[in-house]
Amino acid sequence: MLVIENLVGGYGETDILTGIDLTLAAGEILTVAGTNGAGKSTLAKAVVGLLPRMSGRILLDKQDITRVPVEQRALKGIGYVPQVANVFGSLTITENLEVVEGVKNTRARIAELFELFPAIAERRRARASSLSGGERQQLAFARALMTRPGVIVLDEPTAALSPIMADESFRRIGELARTGTAVLLIEQRARQALAISHRGAIMDAGKVALSGPAQTLLVDERAAQLYLGVAHAS
């Protein structure tokens, strides 16, 4: 679904990404982990079209979208849940979903998503600013899924969530992949993220330092020492 080739870019004259190569298949979860400042969120912005300067290529379902603006990328099938500012606080839950463009039969799609996210369905008339962290995250997921994207980019989806709500978020991400959606997961809770993923990539200084099957990375000594932390015996 998604191919990233020799991606270089950043802000102003500074390159944050210094040569990224990644692939993502339909129904696959790819976790991108790494230290703060490694370029993970910048990679997410590049994929969805928010990075101001970049070179290389990004292919979506074999189509080159490198120069396609962010709005068109969304219509072509890329969903995005940013780490912050991911819902409109002044709008109700329903209104947050209604304003998403490019959706066929909006009312029916909202009904489908309310079945997937019953907690926000119960509060559909409440303003998003009144939601708890977990409810807000559900609304952000639902907004990103309105257009039925083939690829969804999640930037730190468990940030600021309690451990219980983080577990619930990971469960929903796993369910999402089983529907055939490809998931690019940027995540600080690297071990938990890799545990539900098919593959992983660990970034360092704007490059992919390590990559491979998620279960292999979880037991890789270099990954553990440098990026994931030492696993504690239960």
From TrEMBL:
It comes from the Bacteria. Keywords: Amino-acid transport, ATP-binding, Nucleotide-binding, Transport. Coiled coil: none annotated. InterPro entries: AAA+_ATPase (IPR003593), ABC_transporter-like_ATP-bd (IPR003439), BCAA_Transport_ATP-bd_LivF (IPR052156), P-loop_NTPase (IPR027417). Residues 2-230 form the ABC transporter domain. It holds the Pfam family ABC_tran. GO terms for molecular function: ATP binding. Belongs to the ABC transporter superfamily. PANTHER family: HIGH-AFFINITY BRANCHED-CHAIN AMINO ACID TRANSPORT ATP-BINDING PROTEIN LIVF. This is ABC transporter ATP-binding protein.
